[in-house]
Amino acid sequence: MEPADQLAVVSLSRDLTAGYRWTSGRVELPNDGCYISRMRNGIGVSPGVAVGKAYCIHQIFVNPDTRRLEGQETTAELSKYENARDLTAADLQALQAKVKAQVGPEEASIFAVHESILRDPAFTDKVRRWIADEHQTAQAALHRLLNEYTSLFARTKDNYLRERVNDVRDVVVRISAHLSEVLLPESDLDVGPLIVVADELLPSQAVALGDIEVKAIVTQAGSQTSHAAIIARSRGIPAVSGVRGILRQVNNGDTLVVDGRSGKVVVRPNAETESAYRKLEREFFDLKDELVANRDSPALTGDGEAIELQANINNLADTRAAIAMGGSGVGLYRTEYLFLDHPSVPDEEEQLTTYCDIINAAPGKSVTIRTLDIGGDKTVPYLGHDHAEANPFMGWRSIRLSFEHPEFFHTQIRAILRAAGEVEDASVKLLFPMVTTLEEMNRLRSMVRRVCRHLDEENKTYRKVPIGMMLEVPAAAISIDSMLHVVDYISIGSNDLVQYLMAADRDNPKVSHLCQPLAPPVLRVLANVIRSCRRGQKPVTLCGEMAGQPRAFVVLLAMGLRSFSMSPAFIPSIKELASHVTDEDCKRILRKALSLRTTANVNRYLGEELQQIAPGLSILDTI
């Protein structure tokens, strides 16, 4: 049994008229009956309750299809595979040419390697044989091939050879994408919205989900700030991470209960347990619908002080959600998703069109555009990420990578400045991620000046915009006072700041418990940064996931922060919460919170305060 397993005794009433109650994040049931059910514990990362059918992702969107082909289907399946293979070859050739022209020959060489894998007889002959002789579908044959190569490469002691399995995986996924543009659930899952169960959802995998209607997310790895958590919160759906071994216990089509507040997942609940949670699910969605009614109301504290609630977005759909939820603007546009979702390198005109569309769709045409934040767990092969790093989150990423590809970086800055000039009445800000030193910020400003000179020489329409730095590296937080004079504003990226301060990878389940935004060292650093920005009269926003978490929001408001950017789905609840918090509350909360010495004590105290201030919103808080 997994360590997180427990046999949960759920007391069920034989009298169905007795009803159920929501109490402190649990289903409280009358205890005149007993049913033994498998319940798994994880980390509640996005609040709410969902009941639905499981859709398990066992590999990176390569379908382990077990359907056997009929005799007459084999020829058509071989033809389908050959067509997908030809399209993949054309993709790789086009990518190689485009990356060579826009980035450089060394970075483009990875696609030549991928093409050689694609054309390797040992690779493709096996797929053909399994389709023709064993009547497997092309998707199933690719899944089998990937497993075989993964096992083979895992046995070698040569690090270089072990890394080559990623190249094989990339080729397999490309072919698979042409076989099925969007990997939809299997035909026997004709049940509506699904609960995605995966090891972890990386950004590129999230893109591949396409238009599947996801009701909740459960992952084996991850934490409060993992990408699965961020994706779930951006969609306003419940999620639980860190449920080890769940993929071995759940099959496609199994009924699951996901309680994103308490971090519980119930596998194959009995009818009465399912009914109890479905009632809570309806209450959760009713509350969300009720809160959305405040979309046109101003965001004010309990004393009537105005605050700014903006949205974090990845794409145009998120921008529309920001308006629907009553956001005042886009406080963080993550441009890397444009690159992750693009089959090649988006050129200047493509980027310009996308940025203009985002600005035009944003509330008040107000958008803070962050430059490419690739690296860590977000990689694109045409920027040289074909080799693994021992510590990718602390390595060659974000502006460090951009400095090494100045022409590529200049193209993005040009497109952003041009978009700011193209859209009438636009309010655009330029944000640079992972700035560590004053020297880096000076270099970035110099690059922007150079781009402006080139645009002037070409008579291109553009607009100079405020330039900010994302504060997420402890070195920058410590030296904040010496950096304020070279920026127009500060945007605090709490997700990375927390993991760097605590020296713990937020996606590593063995240490993710350390990545707590309410840890006393984190609160002290944030209080100092906010105090320094207010003293230096520099606007400061927090755009990490803390902004949308009720307990964290309360203490950030107490620190004097008045500008927040969050997943659009959380804007209505945070607006409602803010209306209950007074200046007197802030003074009391800040004094007490900063005096506490352990994360557990801070968490407990803020939970108690939240219950006192806005008891009706406790269902939207994660425990």
CATH topology of the largest domain: TIM Barrel
Low-confidence stretches: 1-36, 59-63, 181-191
User: What percentage of the residues does DSSP assign to strands (E)?
Assistant: 15-25%
The structural class is alpha/beta
Top CATH class of the largest domain:
Alpha Beta
Q: Whole-Å distance between the termini?
A: 25 Å
Helical content (DSSP H or I, runs of 4+)? 40-55%
The CATH superfamily of the largest domain turns out to be: Phosphoenolpyruvate-binding domains
Number of strands: 19
For the record, the count of structural domains works out to 3
In the CATH hierarchy, the architecture of the largest domain is Alpha-Beta Barrel
Task: Describe the model.
The chain folds into three domains: 159 residues, Glucose Oxidase, domain 1 (3-Layer(bba) Sandwich); 107 residues, Enzyme I, Chain A, domain 2, CATH 1.10.274.10; 314 residues, TIM Barrel. The chain is 45% helix and 15% strand. The N terminus is likely disordered. Strand 7, helix 6 and strand 8 form a beta-alpha-beta unit. The longest helix has 30 residues. It is built from 22 helices and 19 strands. The chain has a nine-stranded mixed sheet. The protein has an eight-stranded parallel sheet with strand order 18-17-16-15-14-13-12-19. The protein is α/β, with parallel strands linked by helices and 623 residues long.
